[in-house]
Specification:
Length: 112
């Protein structure tokens, strides 16, 4: 009886043994179709299985279904995750500023 493989093995078998980053890390890749050249073969760094689109929160990344996982090299994943977290922080800061605008409106008549 064949033993089921682990998540990384399944992801590598399904999507190939190459990092699937196409610039989400902020770098311009020079490989095939501007795809990262990191692979499981050769002298490249090992790959990991992570969501195709990084989430800002670790719990979201850990809960991603198998179908959403793709191979990533560590440098690309780290940088793509940092970029997503920065984007989410900027979005949260913008919403907070918009919510506070009315608090400091000095032209509003507050006399009752």
């Amino acid at each position: 009886m064949k033993r089921p493989g682990n998540v990384l093995t399944t992801v590598l078998e399904t999507h190939g043994g190459r990092c699937t980053c196409r610039g989400a890390c902020g770098k311009t890749h020079t490989g095939d179709g501007e795809r990262c050249n990191a692979a499981t073969s050769g002298k490249n760094k090992p790959l990991l299985a992570a969501p195709q689109t990084p989430h800002a929160k670790d719990v979201q990344n850990a809960a991603a279904p198998l179908e959403e996982l793709r191979p990533w090299c560590w440098p690309c994943w780290r940088d793509a995750l940092a970029a997503e977290r920065a984007r989410a922080n900027d979005q949260r800061d913008q919403k907070l500023m918009e919510m506070q605008i009315g608090l400091f409106d000095v032209d509003t008549d507050t006399a009752a």
